[in-house]
Amino acid sequence: MTTFVLLHGAWHDPSCWEPLADELRARGHAVVAPKLPLHDPHAGWEERIAAAVTAVVGRVGAGPVVVGHSMGAGYAPHVAAALRDAAAAPPPASGPPEPPAAPGKRTRLLPLGGSNFDVSGSATPDGAAGAAGPGAPAGPHAPAGPAAPAGPHTPAGSTAPAGPDRAGGSPAVVLLCPGFGPLRDGFPWPATRADGTSVWEPAAAVASLYRGVPPATARELAARLRPMAPPPDRPPPRPDPPAPTTVVIATDDPLFDPAAERAKAHRRPGVDVREIPGGHFPMVEDPAALAALLHRLALPTAPPPTPRP
Fold this sequence. Notes:
The chain has 309 residues and is α/β, with parallel strands linked by helices. It is 26% helix and 10% strand. Helix 1 (18-26) crosses helix 8, helix 2 crosses helix 3 and helix 4 (202-209) packs across helix 5.
């Protein structure tokens, strides 16, 4: 069993993960989905990272898989590094801290159409240790350059059973549709408002952002979109040592050209690159297929992925 820490992207909240969370739990995994202050133009990198870590620490073991979607991919390596450091720190003299929730209990993610929530997931530790990889915005909200030992480009449907070698129980980072940039020509990115945020009109989001998402689901997602603001400061230094890192590219992503994403991912030494069909929100377009891929990537040890012919 692996604990997956799911970091949402711009304009969204953790409820976008609900379909995937159910699929991961059905495979025996635990899920924690913190709420990030990506809507706050005054929240810097450290505050955004800390919001995730505070919600997660005590709910996961030493080797979670941190999955960052879109803008969340920039924060994923830093969150993983902080969780690694927290797991390695000696407990206080009075004993280990009280976890936020009793073992075996969880706060359910609300179904689509519900209000926001902060954290969801069972918190059974999975007993691993390790580090995280780097991240910084290169495109509109992309991580700058994860690095980790891995194999060559592999489609998601490959027979390769797992991703980068996690021997020794190190944590892993998955960058899901990370948006290394640039945006596709003509994509209608919302205008920046006077307060530094941008926001979607629901109808425009359904038409442009949620291509490939079932219409009813797209409308529910669009109705809950929040403002988004980039952090006002520069990213912190890249975590060292890096975690095994996998980049997952959607071949029909309406925001970012897969060819450009692929080329930039392959410039990062050792990164495992996978491709899946569909658009920018695979967690709601085909959550079962994404859960199957993440399940394989979470295996603690595995042969390198099969090269693409």
